[in-house]
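S1.2 Input.
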Amino acid sequence: MEKKSYDYLKSPDLLPVSHDKKTISTLGFSSMWVGMAILLATFAIGAAGVQTLPLGWVVAATIIGSLAIGVFITIIGDIGIEHGLSFPVYMRAPFGIIGTHIPSVIRAIAASFWFGINTYFGATAVNAILNTLTGFDHWLICYMIFALVQLINTASGIKWVERFADITAPIIIIISLVMYSTLSDQAIEYGKNVWTWVESPVTGGAAVTAFLVVLFSNMGFWATLGTDIPTLSRFIKAPKFERNWFKRNKGTLIGSTIALPLTEAFMIMIGAASYVVAANSNPVFALEKSASGWMLVVLLLMIVLTQWSTNISANLVPAAAIFSNAGGPKVSYAVAVFIAGIVGTVIEPWNVFNVLTQVLLIIGAVLSSVTGILFADYYLIRKRRVNVQDLYKNAGQYKYHGGVNIAGFIAWFAGGIIAYFFMDYSFIIGFIVASVVYYVLAKFWYFKRFPQEEVENPSDEDYLGITVGRDWVIDDTPQSVQKSDAESV
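S1.3 Output.
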């Protein structure tokens, strides 16, 4: 019985990724960001921004906010770079081997719902393309086919996710330039300049508030990926024996602080142009007014590619890791991918789109405090040293009280509740409150009751990973486990 529960924590898809399995290059991760940053919600931020501010200020706020969240993403991503650990596995440290499932599964469900929303958005574009070319008009069939293709792509392994990003990134960039140009020209025909037109201009303190709302909206939207970025970063290439944090995290840093802000800013511009042209942030509607024939097909193709790229990298991969963690070794990565697809579809995002989007933004605000907890646990308390072996032990140091780290949950509730009441600034408030509460409770109370080896004996050689050239090999891993689905090519 003990053997069964002991092995439950050792799903092959969640074992530490060794150095030779880190296959995503700096360019590959940047290409992922080009696709991930293009979402209906991104367009909506641009559309909302130009209702009160000139586009130049909206873009400036977007770049600052995206750069800031990119730094946070890189900071948390070191968990995956250094130790090869995924988000749900490391969460066993601040939440316990059982407690990890509650915040993790909430994140997985949210990611699955976003998969459904983005697939619906992409399916409408697929349907519009087919309707333009052949007269076919059945968006639900388009949804099912589009969803299946994305699920197969993701289930094929992380290398295929990167390959898709590498292929589509240059296509997306070229088409997005054409899209912006088309919408901008259409706005000029209407007598509007997208850079100077503002629906209801504000000044003074109201303008400052509007600027901050755009800034923190960009941060808050990516807060959830900032939480579970280790699931992706564990596959990013990094040098062994590199103690310089910036050099070790170069791949994540360049992608998250250059590719993300630039792409996000440009998509904000497209969303703003769409609103100027059609009073709607959805460029599909605006494009149908501004283009026709093959030009419309090409522009709509970008919508399809971007939703595909976003879903496989930012939604399906993180959700699959979490569902695999919750289900144990019997739920492989590939099976977990399809579970995420099913969850995202059964809620019928096409019927509850407006309500669901608001709910997901609230969930994102509540989950933002988890990022603060991870930061405090990994950097402030453990100093990046982790007793990785015990993360996979049922009776190890992370068992805590019945498998739950009470300090983590108190900090999560405190940060999440306060973040909920300050939605516009949820990420930064949730991060600060949760990190402070967790640090105080864990350091001065909880870890005195449940001592942590890497804190009591802060040895680099024993508890660091790639910095000291170590590939973590988990003791007593079943011999039948040779290669995970997530790593397969």
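S1.4 Remarks. The chain has one domain: 20-468.
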